[in-house]
Amino acid sequence: MKLAITAAGADLQAPLDPRFGRAQYYIFIDVETMNYEVVDNSKMNPAHGAGIQAAQLMSEREVDAVITGNVGPNAFQALTAADIQMFQMKGSTISDAIEAFKAGKLQAISQMGPAHAGMGSQGNAQGKGRGRNR
Question: pLDDT at position 49, please?
């Protein structure tokens, strides 16, 4: 079985990244052989549609399941359409997530998480007292 895990670092001891579309790295791993490949996602983050692009990558890599923290509505629909299972885990390492998956201890993601529109205000004075009532 081939898994994709969202990671904050490039090895199996890295923490799990809770963001699906905007994860820093994706670790693709064959759970039978434990052979894995790391894909750097930090330079592939568009302003919009990151979740859909990540779901397309999962489909292209022919993964059976994804382990992450949250999956937005568009990515959820794309992963569901591609028949890719989704499992939730937070606050752990990649190796712990793999062991929990093998032991059947992960919770399946059965509904979409909140939408994350783009990358926010990027610090352009929004919410810093520089608005309408100066």
Answer: 77
